[in-house]
Amino acid sequence: MFKSHILGYPCVIIFNSEEAMFVLNKDQLFKPTFSASKERMLGKQAIFFHQRAYHANLRMLVLRTIMPEAIKDIISEIESIAQSCLKSWEGKYSILNACTSHTRRARKELAQILAQIISTRRNMKQDRNDLLGLFMSEKAGPTDEQIIDNIIGVIFAARDTAATVLTWIVKYLGENPHILEAVTESIIRGKEENGEQIGLNWSDIKNVLMTSRVIQETLRIASILSFTSREAIEDVEIQGYLIPEGWKVLPLFRNIHHRPDNFKEPEKFDPSRFEVPPKPNTFMHLAMGSMDVRWSIIGAKKKNQYDPFALPQNGLPVTLYPKK
Ligand code: HEM
């Protein structure tokens, strides 16, 4: 733990898992803190800026839509979208990248589109089984303004994070062909043993242990959200140190994930380490998939860029080709 100033604010930086969990779990002592520009971009009713009942209710609704069960009936649809994307990229130089620009105008347009969708669904009495449908079906649930801010918030939380993790997975599997083969084998073997046809189904999603270890190890080693931030609501003492009211506190996930006392040989990509559960509170995590293409990475493999999360340089340009 040490203190510093970041962007003019006094901050306490934490890279010990117990202290990080203390800060994240004590919302009577620490509140979320974000820049004014983030609040303007997402909307002040978005989940990130709130606590207690309003926050808990939104969190429960969002969690319901990202549980694996939520995609049970649309697995083959998701697989076919993924496959058609991969097919359209075959043989081409492609960049997996995320771009954040013209945010204010984009936000306004998104809000208008969402308002239109809400009004159409209401007029047509459409009951849809998605996050918007869930928000709209809540009795005494969020207002339209709150729904819009939170749909934009979830798009923000889900899009770049998921795209960035996928990019890192492609990089690590590309660099570790034996792990890639093991992942592919584990899915195909399971299907052959069950006499099933090629194509993902619900039992694959529940049984892809190897795949989920690869995802966990990627989330750990790439730690795409390196840290989060809170603000002390009052003076708080941790481990004999005083954190004065108003100071920011930054738990550093990346450092916690890269401490050798938490994860042996932390710089090594080794999904097998997740065959046993990590020490409590040392892994701040998330998520699943399959594909039958291979790729080669173009250009320098060692450099990173920040856009806004750490990504392999230029979004990891790759050439895709069908698996032989
Ligand atoms: C796959 C990569 C992802 C990573 C590494 C990730 C990581 C995180 C972390 C560390 C936080 C906590 C921030 C804090 O408490 O200060 C968070 C919050 C959040 N994430 Fe994700 N996330 C990912 C994907 C997603 C997806 C796909 C969704 C879509 C639903 C999502 C929705 C949210 C929401 C709504 C919050 C705010 C939760 C709250 O305030 O209680 N995230 N995420």
From TrEMBL:
It comes from the Eukaryota. Keywords: Iron, Metal-binding. Gene3D superfamilies: Cytochrome P450. GO terms for biological process: abscisic acid metabolic process. GO terms for molecular function: (+)-abscisic acid 8'-hydroxylase activity; heme binding; iron ion binding. Pfam families: p450. PANTHER family: ABSCISIC ACID 8'-HYDROXYLASE 1 (PTHR24286:SF10), CYTOCHROME P450 26 (PTHR24286). Belongs to the cytochrome P450 family. This is Uncharacterized protein.
